[in-house]
Design a protein that fits this description.
13 helices; 2 domains; single chain; Rossmann fold; six-stranded parallel beta sheet; alpha/beta; 318 residues
Length: 318
């Protein structure tokens, strides 16, 4: 089967949708499919379109549907789709209607869809192989990792602000990896780094280096306003790194409603209290670690590949 996989993210990006697209391309090729990855569908004969992002890929979805009548279309919904665009954008809603199948990254996203759309929706958890490399954590500090590009929806400096409220006895240090997609945030990150000894902005880094820093960290902090099902959460879980997250649907769908490591979006003081508790309360830290470990099976590569194989088979039965 000839598959066109469309992602509006630059293929060179190391964070976000480009990672998902690259992994799905590998899975589909391993399943014997002929996959081309494009930022936009231009023209050509394909048997299937896989479009990552209902809103941003709308033009590609519409054009493919016109030029390849009768060929199936899979639309994968991102966080901004699920929790914003499909509720306010006619283009995003058109993509939902055009799609033969919809893919969401965690089950809580189903609640945002009508019962009719849920019937053609599949949940596919994002996976990562378990690394067998030995981990050497920094002994000089309690290192916390933030992996987020600098843009408003990620609230990327919230962990830095929270660290600034910690008592002087704390050994917490924030290592923040992410590209400056918003110049105003770049200036703010540089300024914060100059006045906050607990915060380091490392900028965009190669994927191997990002994963190395994540694996050695004591904790991953996710501060986003919305996520479809963050890659970094699944990567942290697989890497045995517990997670602190905003209480958002995208994280609840991966960690569970009763997970104790949530804080309200934008609430610096609540996050500071959680960070301090995680550092000082070993029982609480170990509870987070065990709960994340129990979720690890959801993010096995074999499970993601199986979900894609079954999805392709279901299209062939239509």
């Amino acid at each position: 089967m000839r598959i066109c996989l469309v992602t509006t993210a630059a293929t060179s990006s190391i964070i976000g949708n480009s990672i998902t697209a690259a992994r799905w391309a590998r899975i589909l090729r391993h399943l014997g499919q002929d996959v081309s990855v494009w930022q936009d569908y231009s023209t050509g004969r394909f048997d299937l379109l896989v479009a990552l992002h209902a809103f941003k890929s709308w033009k590609s979805i519409r054009k493919f549907h016109s030029e390849n009548p009768g060929c199936p279309i899979i639309v994968a919904l991102t966080g901004t789709d699920v929790y914003d665009k499909i509720h306010v954008s006619a283009k995003a809603r058109e993509s939902l209607e055009t799609a033969s199948r919809l893919v969401v990254l965690q089950p809580d996203a189903l609640e945002q869809l009508s019962p009719r759309l849920r019937r053609k929706t599949v949940v596919i958890y994002q996976s990562l192989p378990v690394s067998k490399k030995a981990v050497k954590r920094l002994k000089s500090c309690f290192e916390i990792c933030v992996i987020a590009n600098l843009r408003s929806v990620k609230d990327p400096l919230r962990a830095a602000y929270a660290a600034g409220l910690l008592p002087t006895s704390s050994k917490i240090k924030i290592s923040h990896i992410g590209a400056a997609l918003d110049n105003s945030f770049a200036g703010r990150a540089i300024k914060e780094e100059s006045v906050n000894h607990r915060y380091r902005w490392l900028g965009e880094m190669p994927r191997w280096k990002t994963q190395s820093i994540l694996r050695r960290s004591r904790l991953l902090v996710l501060t986003s306003k919305m996520e479809g099902g963050a890659n970094v959460v699944s990567e942290a879980i697989v890497s045995s790194v517990p997670v602190i997250s905003t209480r958002i649907s995208g994280s609840i769908g991966m960690l569970g409603d009763e997970y104790p490591g949530y804080f309200p979006y934008g609430d610096t003081r609540s996050l500071a209290k959680l960070l301090h508790r995680t550092e000082c309360d070993k029982d609480f830290y170990n509870e987070l670690k065990l709960l994340c470990k129990n979720k690890r099976k959801l993010f096995r590569p074999a499970n993601e590949a199986k979900a894609w194989r079954e999805l392709l088979e279901s299209l062939q039965r239509d």
